[in-house]
Design brief:
Layout (H helix, E strand, L loop, with lengths): L1 E7 L2 H14 L4 E7 L7 H11 L4 E5 L3 E3 L4 H11 L3 E5 L1 E3 L1 E2 L14 E7 L7 E4 L7 E2 L2 E2 L3 E5 L19 H9 L4 E4 L5 E3 L7 H13 L6 E2 L14 E4 L11
Parallel strand pairs: 1-2, 1-3, 5-13, 8-14
Antiparallel strand pairs: 3-12, 4-14, 5-12, 6-8, 6-11, 7-15, 8-9, 9-16, 10-13
Length: about 250
Amino acid sequence: MISLVTCCKSPTQQTLQEQNAAKTVGTEHEIIAIDGSSPTVNVAAAYNRAALAAKGDLVVFIADDCYLMNELWGTALSAKFSAAPELGIAGVAGTQYFFADKSSWTAAGRPYVKGRIVYHPENDELFAVVFSADRQDTPVVACDGCFMAVRKSLFDKCLFDEETFPGRHFYDLDFCLRAARRALVIVTSDVTVSKRHQPVFDKEWREAGEEFLRKNREILPASCADSVPDPEHFVPSAVVDLKGKVSARIIC
């Protein structure tokens, strides 16, 4: 069973996400909806409470502006976790190398970043940020929190750090780094999400990033790659225009 956790800012948004999940998951599931209407909501604390209360053996966290684009994703994930007892987290985008002095998980560039995220902003654009062209599961040290499937038993060993990261940033990356020392973390191409908003790297994000680096200075850099990125030869991810090529309709 899958427990899908979402923290939405409005009832309309929540309803649309719930309908999208129910239509696409393809397996037994429950939805744990968190009231995210307050700008000061502690997402990490809410996620911890949801994870501990979840009935499923797989807990899926999805950002409030994300929707699933492919059907039967839940069936695919359940099979994946059942077949690999060492698997702890599966995301849709992440990195194999995390610098000690750069808080962005995309800082290593290609070929160290993996996965893809489709963006469908309100201006009606439709494009994909393709971090890698891999079509197989790839190990990473951290994945983006827009979508994370976590084995429920992993929460017996570690939780989101709600004290250090009380806002909306870096609780996901911090959790992954700690989880990666206990279980396998991967990016999978079996799940595709569309996101309504692009990242905003504002003051709050920068301050949380600095705290993330301070907290994890003893374990950074973190890597599961065979080589070390050269910042002087940074290779950016590809941006692919999808308008008119794929359906922008939210499945619900």
